[in-house]
Amino acid sequence: MTDRYDAIVVGVGGMGSATTYCLAERGLDVLGLERYDIPHEMGSSHGVTRIIRKAQYEDPAYVPLVERAYERWRDLEDRTGRDLLWVTGGVDAGPPDSRVFAGSKASCEAHGIDHEVLDAREVNERFPGYDLPASHRAVYQPDGGFLVPEQCIVAHVEAAQAEGAEVRAREPVADLVALPDGGVRATTPKGTYEADRAVVTAGAWAPKLVPELAGVAVPERQVLAWLRPTAPERFDPESFPVFVHADDDGHYYGFPRHDVPGFKFGKFNHLGETVDPDATDREPRPEDERLLRAYAERHFPEGAGPTMKLATCMFTNTPDEHFVLDRLPDWPQITVGAGFSGHGFKFASAIGEVLADLSVDGETHHDVDLFGLDRFE
To answer: Which candidate, 5, 123, 67, 37, places its Cα nearest to that of 353?
Structure first.
């Protein structure tokens, strides 16, 4: 016996939970299938806090999407009664010619985003937990802050269920097939399900289900650290904005204390380790901690106290570090959201809307020209 739905969402993490909700919100009969728990710590949508910022050094084209994401996060808070988005302000800093500083400033100017340009002395005096090099400059954006990812996922799933969606955890999809009638079939150890359409938001596992993503969405091991500050009050949300910082050896990012008694931070692309998501080393290693602690000692010395927590996650990177939001050219009943390259979670509430639009209508009013799969042909 095969159950039939209007839509199946494969992977109910950050992007998949939002997509499940948006499809159900449109009145579709939706099934969400998640290989692990809801939420879980095996992929890319966990870690206590995730940055959200209106300034987008990656490309000014992201700004309208993140502005819509802010609206959708606030709507989700109103609907569920959960606190999801904390505003702390945000700092994008680095040498004047760095991509982080120059790109952030350009995106603010292009879209009229409220911001200040500060030198390192001004940053360090205003936010005493910081110790940026004298030659660095920063864009301060007062709307920056963080999301609590596990709560965001739970909120989206609860909202989807309230709209009638069915969500099943611990049910990995072993096979996803496009059917001759224009539908899809998903097979799991517990059953076989068919639908008119499917959306694949399976993170690091997406290339295993969608061959077109092989070599396009590549998983990478990532490690985060939480260190106890010696001056804890300087790392509270009221006095410590989230940051992205271009240092000599790469880009780092960090957060105030929240739910863990430590200052959280990480390095983009960490040690550059490409991994198989089913075989990656999930236990942090001494070299992971050494790399991160050295950075904190350089630029956040009062945050470099005893280690409180280390955790691994995964980035799934595309060659140009931009997302994939598209329907498969040969199988338009399958839509993919993949390759979020370490900077996607903040957009999840709006990406759910985009993927629902593409899946049902074949188009969206959001500008997604940057995210087509055909750019890699």
So the answer is: 67
**Sheet containing 250-255: order of strands:** 116-119, 137-141, 90-94, 242-247, 250-255, 263-267, 218-227, 307-317
Q: Give how far the C-alpha of residue 247 lies from the chain's centroid of Cα atoms, to the nearest Å.
A: 22
Tell me the C-alpha to C-alpha distance, in Å, between residue 131 and each of 98, 125, 191, 298: 18, 9, 55, 8
Structural contact between residues 172 and 188, judged by C-beta atoms closer than 8 angstroms: yes
- In whole angstroms, what is the distance from residue 46 CA to residue 323 CA? 19
Per-residue pLDDT of the chain (377 residues; tens, 9 = 90+): 568 999 999 999 999 999 999 999 999 999 999 999 999 999 999 999 999 999 999 999 999 999 999 999 999 999 999 999 999 999 999 999 999 999 999 999 999 999 999 999 999 999 999 999 999 999 999 999 999 999 999 999 999 999 999 999 999 999 999 999 899 999 999 999 999 999 999 999 999 999 999 999 999 999 999 999 999 999 999 999 999 999 999 999 999 999 999 999 999 999 999 999 999 999 999 999 999 999 999 999 999 999 999 999 999 999 999 999 999 999 999 999 999 999 999 999 999 999 999 999 999 999 999 999 999 98
Q: Phi/psi at 170 (nearest 5 deg)?
A: 55, 45
CA distance 110 to 62: 11
CA angle 195, 199, 201 (to 5 degrees): 140
CA of 211: how far to CAs of 11, 41, 162, 335, 358, in Å? 16, 25, 34, 13, 20
Domains recognised in the chain with CATH numbers: 3-46+150-213+320-376 (3.50.50.60), 88-145+218-317 (3.30.9.10)
Which amino acid is it at 283?
E
